[in-house]
Each structure stands twice: as structure tokens, then as C-alpha cells.
Amino acid sequence: MEGLRVATRVGCNGCHGADAAGRSFSKDKDGTLIVAPNLSTRRHLYTDEGLAALLHEGRTHDGHVPFGMPIQAFQHLSHREVRDIVAWMRSLPEVANGSEEASTWSPALAASLADGSHPWMGDMRPTPGNQPAPEPPVEPVALGRHLAMTSCSECHGWDLNGFGDPGAAPSLVVAKAYTDEQFARLMRTGEVAAGGPSATGLMSGVSAFRFSVMSDAEVQALKAYLDGR
Known about the structure:
229 residues; two-stranded antiparallel sheet; 12 helices; single chain
């Protein structure tokens, strides 16, 4: 199913679990627990249009902040890709929760989300005036940019130049140091140009799980776009 392939590429089942039954992240000492909820049960709270608004605009069914959802990346998904993801979500067999049912926010976290001061707020909101395309681009370089913005910007920055934090994912200018063959191997297996896994292991894990579903043409388009930046 194309929806599963797109959902895998952009990370839906990376956060929500391979079976989409939900996944809990570690509890902080202040009591905050972040849960990517069970999609097979949470989908019933949304119409198809509501799910599109969630992905493109970060608009949840009850107005809560979609904490941790990379709306800055998802806003670039085409309407076709969103319909494919929604079709995949609707096809999921309903399963028992694989994690706690709801996130628990500390008072400090809740306050920073309510007043918009949390440093991640920008990632959970779309760019004003963003207009998603009806279909993904076909022209290779344009397709490469589309793939980069929907699949890479979550970690490598909204401009693909990294977030600048020590130890964070670098600027994607590093892609120019890869041959086409090395880049394809990275995207398929997570092996970096020098051999072995990435420094933190994050890129290697993401590539092996998410980016390995990309077609050869998509990998080539992504490389062409990153080389031309």
C-alpha cells in the first residue's frame, strides 16, 4: 500500500510504532511522559478532512498542541500523499494500546505550550500561507526537494542546514561528499561513506527503517537536489 510506504518514509510508524499501536517515550524527572498514541483507535476522532488538517496544519480534534509532531515537515506533503496516509490509517486493524493511553505534561511544559514559548513550538506549526501541492512533483530535482522537505527537515533543519546544536544532525551539505553509490547505500542500509554506522546511530537507524522504502528514482532525485544546493 502506497500509504504505508509514505507513512514509513515520513516517520509516522517510526514514532507511533511499527504496528501503529502507540509508543511511549521516556518519562522525565518532572513527570512528563510523551506518548505517540495508538493510531488504530485515535483515527476515529477525525474525519478524513480532519486528519489532513492535523498533518498540514497541526490542527488536532480538540485543539491541543500536537507535541512532537513535525508539522513543519508534514505541511509540505501533497494532498495525494496525505490521502494515501489516511487510507493506510483507515486500513489498520484495531489493536489494544501498546503504551500508556495519554501523555502527561508537567505544569511547566503545559504552560510553555499554552503561551507559545516552548522552543519546539515552531516545529509544530505550519508556515503561514503554506499551500500544499495537489500531487508530488515529477521533475527529478523538484521531487528531490520535496523528499528532503518532507523526510529530512525534521532532523536536519527547516532549511536543511542543521539546527546548529552540538551533536545535532548536520547540514545536508554533507551529501555532496557522497558518491551516488555511497548515498544509495546510506539510504538503503544506514552505512556512511567511511563505512559503518553514523556517529550517533540515528541516521543509520532512520535510513534502515524509513528511507529504505524509497524507490531508486526517489533516492537519485534526492541526491540530485542536495548536490545542487
